[in-house]
Amino acid sequence: MAAPPGFAEHCAQLLAPHGPVRLKRMFGGHGLYVDELFIALISRQTLYLKADDATREQFRAAGGRIFAPQMPGRGVVELPYWTVPEEALESDAAMAPWARLAIGAALRARAAAAPKRATAGPAPAKGAPAKRAVAKRALEKRPAAKRGAEDRPALPPAGRKRAG
Hints:
By secondary structure, the chain is α+β, with helices and mostly antiparallel strands. The chain has 4 helices and 8 strands, in the order H-E-E-E-E-H-E-E-E-E-H-H. It has helices at about 5-15, 55-60, 90-120, 130-140, and strands at about 20-25, 30-35, 35-45, 45-50, 65, 70, 75, 80-85. Strands 1-2-3-4-8-5 form a 6-stranded antiparallel sheet. It has a two-stranded antiparallel ribbon with strand order 6-7.
């Protein structure tokens, strides 16, 4: 199907019943977020929805095609995004079951990635000062005798007494 002008906006409208939709230009196409969850992309005027092991067969059984772009230096790479049946592009109601599958896949992917982020260490407490600011204040509080030479005030020229 040739995509009409405004195809990205049309797809955003089809997904809007599932939450606030944000379109983001990327790689010559668009990314679509629902409630800040990346669930779809548009490439060459074709909509692809996110799928995973739990939903892939439903997309395949409906005649969906996987998103498989040519990547420089890597050849063709299959990514977990699939086309939807043509009729799903005609109404919110027809898109709804496919959108729910994509949202479910995106939520599962986010949940699987969450423990990886947690291993980086605990997040600073809300309102905690940044490390750089803490280090700067500590340096400012140190007595001049304990600071490095670069932190000490310059001595007056020889033969002159310091005002003081």
